Amino acid sequence: MPQQNDKLLKLIQVGFEVSQIKDIDLLLEKVLREARSFTNCDAGSIYVKEGDRLRFSYTQNDTLQRELPPGRKLPFATFTIPIGNDSIVGYAASEGTIVNIADAYQSTGSYPFSFNRSYDEMSGYRTRSMLTIPLKNSRDIVVGVLQLINAMDRSGEVIPFAGTDQEIIGYFAVNAANTIERAKMTREMILRMNKMAEMRDPKETGPHVNRVASYSVALYEAWAHGKGVPQDEIDRNRDVLRMAAMLHDVGKVAISDTILKKPGRFTPEEFEQMKLHTLFGSDLFCDLYSDFDESAAVVALNHHERWDGKGYPGHVDPGTHQPLPGLEGEQGGARGKRGAEIPLFGRIVALADVYDALSCRRCYKEAWNEDEVLNTLRDEAGKQFDPELVQVLLEECVATFRDIEKLYPEEDR
Which of 57, 240, 302, 354 counts the most CB atoms within 10 A of its CB? Predict the structure, then answer.
């Protein structure tokens, strides 16, 4: 009983922690990690309901993770599964019931579905015990499915999932479902804000902002771990950084179409107008109600600053857009921020944004190959970009960036 009470207290604590996360991707990662911790299982996946299908949204597997270099996350391709009796997760969502299987390979005949062994055959993994839980919100509506794989005993042997674990995870699933629903609404609002910018500037696509945000989080994580930043601080910063990075160019909604959609090069006067999108974006978050507002304002304002001080808008008052006293430039205007004067999140998003711009096809250019992109970033270290961040990207993030690019492919237009 003491162990069960400890789990209940942990459940309350984790429920609070989960409720504080606003970004849907980071929330799914947290939900899956904590559910696996409760049940001491080796692996798991989480699916989010989209209409009459379930989208495979996140996976973890300790056995396969140990085979990867430090810092690498498991690559996976997103896909959807119909809700229905053809799969375990589809059945759990359709029936709204928990499915507890002692051995997936021996489940044939017990249920209307059959276990798909293709992932096991591809990866060399062996799935045995499975606990599949529909994530129902407070209105008893399924918003996703949590699937836990291979419960482990203290010696590391695979065992069936206990009935007590099933009950505790059931309670956890309700809180997780409500939080996931709120996070989905937050993501939709951010994407709608970006959709406004996309209507004005065709380069600001949904895949672009998702890639830039994901690159930024991966780069921040690698940098922060190298600096010994505590994990709880990393988790808080990842949450606000991801959402803020998605809105880095939202200020373009205030720029004239004649400038945004001009096919040729800008005149000096037009470029000065274009620079104002950093200030307009910052203005949208000037009323600081949360850490997200503060981070979004910082990213919007600073993602075009340069390490060598030749960026924009420089040392300006965000409220008046005027140069700060004593920080005027030689030719009028504000002096550009240089080095560590640029906030960390601004330096990170600046690097992630250019990486994506170079890597992807645009109406005015073809996509560069990876070597060209990385060589350019290497050449610009200490000039356009924070040299330490460039080094972290080159040494620790390239493979992760490749996976992210596959996860958010550019849509045909």
Answer: 302
Architecture of domain 201-407: Orthogonal Bundle (1.10)
Element (H, E) at 61: strand 53-61
Q: DSSP states of 126-137 as a string? A: ----EEEEEEE-
263 preceded by a cis bond (ω within 30 of 0): no
Q: What are phi and psi of 342, to 5 degrees?
A: -80, 125
Query: How many angstroms separate the CA atoms of 311 and 275, rounded?
Result: 10
Determine contact, residues 322/193, Cβ cutoff 8 Å: no
- CA-based nearest residue to 174, from 137, 132, 131: 137
What is the structure's pLDDT at 69? Answer: 77
* Dihedral in degrees, nearest 10, Cα atoms 219, 225, 227, 230: 120
**Helix, strand, or coil here: 80?**
strand
- Give the global pTM: 0.74
Nearest Cα to 44, choosing from 34, 154, 27?
34
Asked if residue 246 lies in contact with residue 408, where contact means CB atoms within 8 angstroms, the answer is no
Domain extent listing, the chain: 2-183, 201-407
CATH among 3.30.460.80, 2.60.120.810, 3.90.420.10, 3.30.450.40 for 2-183: 3.30.450.40
Distance CA 68, CA 94 (A): 35
φ, ψ (nearest 5 deg) of residue 399: -65, -40
* Residues 47, 403, 292: CA angle, nearest 5 degrees: 70
